[in-house]
Amino acid sequence: MMETSSGKKGVWAKIISFDLGATGSKKVKFYRQLFGFHSTRRRGTQTRRVFTPGILSKIPHLVLGKSVVAVPPEACSQLLDFLSNPQWKPIQVHVVDGLLSAEQVRRAVEEFFSRPVRLTGGEVPLSQAVRAVSRRDAGDPDRRFVERLLDQLGRFEWLKEAVRRAKEELSR
Question: Model pTM?
Answer without folding.
Answer: 0.81
